[in-house]
């Protein structure tokens, strides 16, 4: 949230009253509203709920990571990738394990916050996953033996190292996206276009 | 002696009445454009439809075995059924044939995080007509229908399958890469398109074109760019879209249409112009349609065709919302007095078209 607000601020869309929003869940963007000619409010919701709010039309646009976006299966546009918040998603297991030890058809117990992503990759590899959904400290799943491996986000790898776990297979990169509902009318499309243009200006044509 | 009453069910809901009224009004408007209402079969032999639907696209339709062991498909996607019906039963009519329908469908439809099994749809099919004139006719009929039922906030997002498919097909021969690129383009995810271009070694020229397809609000410069950089179907499709937008502008619809070059064909039969109906007041598309010149050929002679289908449930929701927001509550005149006085007064008011209710506190007077 902080990084998103900082980025909005750089794009000339700062929240009224500064970046410290306290415990407010809904706050106006006065500056942005004036610049874009429409009233704009920010809803502070959990990362995993952003796509739901956007897909249901409660919010026109949202910012969230592809980890939860892919997991939600939400049918939304992803017109801009923000220049922060990128990390890896990987299969990890106890030191001494190797991904080669798993063969096609093997049943593997996996702990993860991302069952859909896990299922998709394991099916692609021909493994039969028994997925244990955890909501936090997923590493413990492998440490305490509730699962053979885990599928989780890896930023620096420090948490894995400190718990004697290693990356067995890199599943790719996650990033933070500006998302929008698919059925935008002209006025909404115009605003989205202006937002994306402003973001690209800040980014200097960097990653997107 | 006690009389036993049997209730066959609850009275029709307001929603059902609204939907029926919508269907009636819509069919009347479509009839005035010379679209004749057609009965769409409830069941059809799956063997006949299989080649048009494909196994993947059949998965959201209900199929079951008939009494003689034949696999049947339940009415779930109207366009292939009408195409099949045309080839089997309606051939010989003077072309073009204009058909309309309003029907209940059964198929698995993903809507947000839930799945629906049944829905109501109304729409038209214009069979045996191609080119700008036919495309324009169908879009204008659609606008007229929306305006007539009071939904003048409806807008169209219009694209062309020939452009999207043509650019991606030219980019790579790898079928898996094409699918991933079409998905990324549909999400307008330029970043992912760039990544895929690197992963699959796509040329800079193709990558630039696909970045244009991802534009949030593509314009005529993007269309001209694509037309200039590509030959064949992409160039022809871009020129066709430019003509269509010129025509819509000439007819005064310029502020109700927008280009969308990112659409892909999930039905598997669209071949030309493709569009979705949106409204600022609605949180999901109200319907959509497009040209499907290769579909009827699966069942009989090859004939060009174009049509649209509208989600009647969403239209009813939206009409209800608009009515609640803007319309004054319709006045219900109520009458008391003797039975004759009350009913006579109510009858007179009814003749002026208003809604009435006869009070029934004292039923014996």
Describe it for me?
The complex is a heterodimer of chains A (208) and B (365). By secondary structure, chain A is of the alpha+beta class. Chain A has eight helices and ten strands. A five-stranded mixed β-sheet of chain A has the order 7-6-8-5-9. In chain A, strands 3-10-4 form a three-stranded antiparallel β-sheet. In chain A, strand 6, helix 5 (115-125) and strand 7 form a beta-alpha-beta unit. Chain A is elongated. The two termini of chain A are 20 Å apart. The model of chain A has no long low-confidence stretch (mean pLDDT 87). By secondary structure, chain B is an alpha+beta fold. Chain B has an eight-stranded mixed β-sheet with strand order 1-5-6-11-10-9-7-8. Helix content of chain B is 45%, strand content 21%. Chain B contains twelve helices and 13 strands. Chain B starts with 13 loop residues before the first helix and ends in a 7-residue tail after the last strand. Mean pLDDT of chain B is 86; it is low at 1-9 and 327-331. Chain B has helices at 14-32, 46-58, 78-90, 131-148, 161-171, 175-186, 190-199, 204-213, 220-229, 232-250, 312-326, 339-351, and strands at residues 36-37, 43-45, 63-65, 71-74, 97-111, 114-127, 155-160, 257-259, 273-278, 287-291, 305-311, 332-335, 355-358. The A-B interface holds A 52, 55-58, 72-73, 75-81, 175, 177, 181-190, 192-193, 196, 207-208 and B 110, 112-113, 153, 155, 157, 187-192, 194, 214, 216-217, 255-256, 258, 276, 278-280, 282-285.
């Amino acid at each position: 949230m902080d990084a998103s607000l900082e980025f909005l601020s750089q794009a000339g869309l700062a929240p009224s009253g500064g970046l410290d929003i306290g415990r407010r869940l809904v706050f106006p963007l006065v500056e942005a509203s004036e610049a874009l000619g429409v009233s704009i409010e920010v809803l502070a919701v959990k990362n995993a709920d952003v796509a739901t709010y956007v897909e249901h039309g409660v919010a026109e646009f949202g910012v969230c990571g592809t980890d939860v976006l892919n997991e939600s299966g939400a049918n939304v546009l992803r017109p801009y990738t923000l220049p922060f918040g990128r990390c890896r998603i990987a299969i990890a297991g106890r030191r001494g394990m190797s991904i080669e030890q798993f063969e096609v058809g093997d049943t593997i117990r996996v702990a993860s916050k991302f069952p859909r992503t896990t299922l998709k990759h394991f099916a692609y590899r021909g493994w039969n996953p028994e997925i244990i959904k955890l909501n936090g400290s997923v590493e413990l799943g492998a440490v305490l033996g509730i699962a053979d491996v885990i599928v989780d986000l890896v930023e620096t790898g420090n948490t894995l190292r400190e718990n004697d776990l290693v990356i067995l297979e890199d599943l790719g990169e996650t990033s933070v996206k500006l998302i929008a509902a698919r059925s935008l009318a002209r006025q909404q499309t115009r605003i989205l276009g202006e937002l994306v243009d402003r973001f690209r200006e800040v980014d200097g044509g960097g990653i997107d | 002696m006690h009389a036993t009453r049997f209730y066959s069910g609850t009275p029709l809901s307001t929603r059902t009445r609204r939907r029926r009224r919508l269907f009636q009004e819509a069919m009347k408007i479509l009839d005035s454009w010379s679209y004749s209402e057609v009965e769409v079969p409830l069941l059809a032999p799956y063997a006949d439809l299989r080649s048009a639907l494909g196994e993947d696209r059949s998965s959201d339709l209900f199929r079951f075995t008939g009494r003689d062991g034949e696999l049947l498909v339940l009415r779930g996607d109207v366009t292939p059924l009408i195409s099949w019906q045309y080839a089997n039963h309606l051939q010989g009519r003077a072309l073009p044939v204009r058909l309309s329908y309003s029907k209940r469908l059964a198929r698995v439809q993903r809507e947000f995080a839930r799945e629906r099994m049944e829905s109501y749809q109304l729409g038209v099919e214009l069979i045996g007509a191609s080119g700008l004139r036919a495309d324009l006719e169908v879009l204008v009929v659609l606008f007229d229908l929306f305006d007539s039922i009071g939904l003048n906030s409806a807008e169209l997002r219009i694209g062309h399958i020939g452009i999207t498919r043509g650019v991606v097909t030219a980019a790579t021969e790898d079928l898996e890469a094409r699918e991933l690129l079409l998905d990324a383009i549909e999400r307008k995810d330029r970043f992912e398109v760039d990544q895929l271009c690197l992963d699959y070694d796509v040329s800079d020229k193709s990558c630039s074109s696909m970045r244009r397809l991802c534009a949030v609000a593509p314009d005529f410069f993007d269309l001209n760019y694509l037309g200039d950089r590509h030959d064949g179907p992409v160039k022809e499709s871009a020129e066709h879209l430019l003509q269509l937008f010129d025509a819509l502008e000439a007819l005064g619809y310029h502020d109700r249409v927008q280009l969308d070059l990112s659409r892909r064909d999930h039905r598997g039969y669209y071949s030309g112009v493709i569009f979705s109906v949106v409204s600022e007041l609605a949180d999901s598309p109200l319907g959509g349609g497009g040209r499907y010149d290769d579909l009827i050929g699966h069942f009989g002679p090859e004939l060009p065709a174009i049509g649209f289908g509208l989600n009647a449930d969403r239209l009813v929701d939206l009409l209800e919302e608009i009515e609640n927001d803007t319309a004054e509550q319709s006045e219900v005149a109520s009458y008391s007095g003797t039975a004759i006085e009350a009913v006579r007064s109510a009858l007179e008011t009814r003749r002026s078209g208003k809604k009435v209710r006869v009070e029934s506190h004292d039923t014996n007077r």
